[in-house]
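step=encode ok
step=design start
structure_in=
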């Protein structure tokens, strides 16, 4: 799964990186994004017919849900079942998005403790998670979810799931293709650092660049 991640680039930087018009209002960087937090996403505006950088509540709320609390259980959608899931299939068919990230966190049990790891591009580049969005309620609250896939390679040593990461050449297809099923086959991103970090990231109240500083640890993945 993907239950925490970091997205710290400015609205201006994200607009440039994703060639999108910024329609957000006051998004702030976060080194510890947690479920129900507001997050940036890139989608095709049905009104503008162009890419826009927007903001959404993390945790997709289906139109038929009674209230926004349903989204806390829907932060991830499994790529293996997203096309048939009653909660996610309508968005997969028509409301796909890209969710920018610097990296994501997972925890590896090390004896009696869990060691957090931060997975991030070695070159400092941006990641684009495959995402879905939906608008809920009379106020059309924008909500979103991140697709996950089976992890492979070294990433599997930390967790058996990972975000479905899309390469730049597939961004437009994910956003606009009538059928994006072919992109659900995971490709393990190259050049990903598995960085041990401190336990402070486990508390959602902590948020700052110190959360992604490498920690010296005796635990090893290799």
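sequence_out=
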């Amino acid at each position: 799964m993907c239950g925490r991640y970091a997205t710290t680039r400015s609205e201006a930087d994200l607009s440039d990186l994703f060639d999108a018009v910024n329609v957000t209002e006051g998004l702030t960087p976060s080194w510890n994004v947690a479920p129900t937090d507001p997050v940036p996403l890139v989608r095709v505006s049905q009104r503008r017919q162009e890419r826009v950088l927007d903001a959404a509540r993390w945790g997709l709320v289906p139109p038929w849900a009674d209230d926004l609390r349903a989204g806390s259980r829907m932060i991830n959608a499994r790529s293996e079942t997203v096309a048939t899931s009653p909660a996610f299939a309508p968005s997969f068919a028509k409301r796909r998005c890209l969710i920018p990230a610097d990296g994501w966190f997972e925890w590896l049990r090390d004896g009696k403790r869990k060691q957090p790891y931060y997975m991030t591009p070695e070159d400092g580049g941006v990641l684009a998670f495959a995402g879905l969005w939906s608008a809920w309620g009379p106020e059309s609250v924008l909500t979103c979810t991140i697709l996950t896939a089976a992890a492979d390679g070294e990433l599997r040593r930390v967790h058996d799931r990972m975000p479905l990461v899309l390469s730049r050449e597939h961004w437009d297809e994910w956003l606009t293709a009538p059928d994006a099923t072919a992109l659900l086959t995971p490709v393990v991103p190259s050049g990903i650092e598995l960085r041990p970090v401190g336990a402070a990231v486990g508390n959602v109240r902590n948020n700052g660049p110190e959360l992604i500083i490498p920690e010296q640890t005796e635990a090893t993945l290799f």
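step=design ok
step=annotate ok -> Helices lie at 11-17, 89-94, 171-176.
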